[in-house]
Amino acid sequence: MSVVSLLGVNILNNPAKFTDNYVFEITFECLEQLEKDLEWKLTYVGSATSDQYDQELDSLLVGPIPVGVNKFIFEADAPKTTRIPDADILGVTVVLLTCSYDGREFVRVGYYVNNEYETEELNADPPAKPIVEKIRRNVLADKPRVTRFAIKWDSEASAPPEFPPEQPEADLQPDEEEYGAEELDEDAEEEEGAEAAAENAGEAGAVAATTDGDAEMAGVEENGEPAEEDEMSDEGSVDLENESEDELEDEVEGEAIEGGDDAMEVDEKPAGGSSKSQEVMV
Questions:
Q1: Tens of pLDDT along 143-185?
Q2: Residue 41: which of 2, 106, 98 has the closest Cα?
């Protein structure tokens, strides 16, 4: 946790002329008694292409710091135009307000600054050589970019950790056992699922083959019985043609008297065959 917290920054002269000083009202809170002073700096970014044009407008040491909420005025000089490229004087740039303790920066506040001429005529047709006296600046104070850093203060306990904490129990177990166990289990489950699917597919194929075989057998039996009937009818017709009419009449009369039951059995045989084929199909 930071010992010093920035609570607010107000720019007292905004907008202002380019050549006017920057005046900031800074409010911060100190939670513990500090052994050293706080160093505040204001930096003007002269060009976006290179940091060699950056200017430290002013720096201020504040201390000793009492515990509680503190407020002070920080005034810094305007940037020197001789150290800024002419092409970068107009337009948008940045000023940085920073604070450090014992040489370690712990907070940075960035503001966009728009530099333009006071009149619309000069803005519409700016001269090749900037007229600094007619340039005004406008700091976008309502949109600051605040960055905080964890630093060591007076005690070692306040120092931020530089490395991850030691974990002796984590070193006792190999990484592959800890991090690869789940992946191995997933692979085993996938292999078991593939084997089960293959076995099911084989059983389904065997059942289908058996069913097809039964169907073929059923078809043979169905087709076989009518074939026998056809042969029997053909043979009967041949015999009837070879026999004489008298023998045929005697044979018919004998069958009518003696073989009445046989005729009934002949009539029942096709019915019995039909029921048999239905049972095979079921």
A1: 999 999 999 998 776 666 654 555 555 555 555 555 555 566 6
A2: 98
At 265-282, the pLDDT tens digits run 434 444 444 443 333 333
Query: How far apart, in whole angstroms, are the C-alpha atoms of residue 109 and residue 10?
Result: 12
Confidence at residue 135, expressed as pLDDT on a 0 to 100 scale: 97
* pTM, to two decimals: 0.57
Could you give phi then psi for residue 157, rounded to 5 degrees?
-65, -25
CA distance 4 to 152: 12
Which DSSP string do the residues of the chain spell out, in sequence order? Answer: --SEEEEEEEESS-SEETTSPEEEEEEEEE-S--SS-EEEEEEEE--SS-GGG-EEEEEEEE-SPPSEEEEEEEEEPPPPGGGS-GGGTSEEEEEEEEEEETTEEEEEEEEEEEEEESSHHHHHS--SS--GGGEEEEE-TTS-EEEE-----SSGGGSPPSSPPP-HHHHSS-HHHHHSHHHHHHHHHHHHHHHHHHHHHHHHHHHHHHHHHHHHHHHHHHHHHHHHHHHHHHHHHHHHHHS-HHHHHHHHHHHHHH-HHHHHHHHHHHHHHHHHHHHHH-
For residue 67, which of 156, 157, 154, 146 has the smallest C-alpha distance?
A: 154
> Which of 89-93, 149-153, 184-188 is predicted least confidently?
184-188
Which residue from 100, 75, 15, 84 is spatially nearest to 45, judged by alpha carbons?
84
Identify the residue whose tokens are 């809170």. Answer: 29
